[in-house]
Amino acid sequence: MRRVRLRFLGAVLVPTLAMLVLAACAGADGNLYGNPGGGAGAGSPGAVIVHTKSLKIGGKAVTVLADARGLTLYYFTADTATNIACGGSCAQLWPPLLATSATGTPTLTGTFGIINGANGHQATYMGHPLYTFSKDKDAGDAYGQGFMGMWYAVTPGVAPLNVGSGGAGSSGYGY
Question: Beta-carbon neighbour count of residue 69 at 10 Å?
Answer without folding.
Answer: 11
